[in-house]
Amino acid sequence: MDIKKYIPTVIKALENASEKIMEIYAKDFKVDYKTDNSPVTKADITSSYILTSYLNQFDIPIISEEEIKPNFEKRKNEPLIWLVDPLDGTREYIKKNNQFCICIALIKNGIPILGFIASPTEKKILFGGKSIGAYEVPFGSKNCTDEKFKLDKPKPNTSKVLVRSNAPLTDTSTDFISKLESQVGEISQINKGSAIKFFDLLHGNADFYIRLAPTMEWDIAAGQAIYETIGGEIRNYNTKEILTYNKKDLRNPHFLAKLNTQKLDY
Q1: CA distance linking residue 61 with residue 52, whole number of Å
Q2: 179 Cβ contact partners less than 8 Å away, ≥ 6 residues apart
Q3: How many CB atoms neighbour CB 168 within 10 A?
Q4: Average pLDDT, integer, range 177-194
Q5: Rg (CA), the chain
Q6: pTM of this prediction?
Q7: 35-52 pLDDT, tens digit each
Q8: 106, 187, 241, 242 — which has fewest CB within 10 A?
């Protein structure tokens, strides 16, 4: 299928949503809490409204963090699904540390085939899929799939770098890092919130991304679609299987992201 047809509309949606997110970010704003005790702001809700209004024109079901989720019995046989995180890293947004983004992924039969990650603060969009490659474009760019925006496969770092969340290390994470160092040597770490970690992976600033804590499908699918274009993979930490999406349970398993050329025992 021609996934390029979706790109102009999604890019426009991301730019418009980012503008509103930054307008709210520049002021004091109220923080509410959902039933699971996770925070939500006006920026989350406004971004979701903007994004879904653009995506609805494609007549593809949308699973968005801030919208009512389609019933699994209705969506399980849908060949295409949008996964949307209108503001990934709401806690970071509240801290005003710039470590937040917007994520959109197109899922075909459980596989992410097109992903977008927009950084409202950097005014950049990372996007791609296996059939088109990976690109990074500044807001306002024309002809976003021009070769000048295309990303090459990064060269491996001499010393390995692990990117992970801002949360304190768990015992399991510490054990994993020790095992990893026994195979690849000393590892340095980058701590960042949200899916902006994929900018580091795509540019070769990080070699591994470990997540041994809860995430949802809309947090990771876009990054997986883009990362796979340069030979990256995201595997279930326990089963070693590649992550899939539009499951009945929208939670992700614990996972490790790395280049598929890096063979590890973990």
Answers
A1: 10
A2: 265, 266
A3: 6
A4: 94
A5: 18
A6: 0.96
A7: 999 999 999 999 999 999
A8: 241
CA 192/CA 260 separation, integer angstroms: 23
Pick the CATH number of 3-149 from 3.30.428.10, 3.40.50.1970, 3.20.20.370, 3.30.540.10: 3.30.540.10
Express each pLDDT in 187-241 by its tens digit. Answer: 999 999 999 999 999 999 999 999 999 999 999 999 999 999 999 999 999 999 9
Return the beta strands (E) in the chain as ranges.
31-33, 39-41, 62-64, 80-88, 101-108, 111-119, 124-129, 133-138, 160-164, 187-191, 208-211, 232-236, 255-259
> Computed from CA positions of residues 124, 90, 240, 81, in that sequence, does the dihedral angle turn out positive or negative?
negative
Tell me which residue has tokens 């539009």: 246
Which residues of the chain form CATH 3.40.190.80? 160-259
Q: Which amino acid is at 246?
A: N
CATH topology of domain 160-259: D-Maltodextrin-Binding Protein; domain 2 (3.40.190)
Query: Is the Cβ–Cβ distance between 3 and 106 less than 8 Å?
Result: yes
Residue type for position 56: N
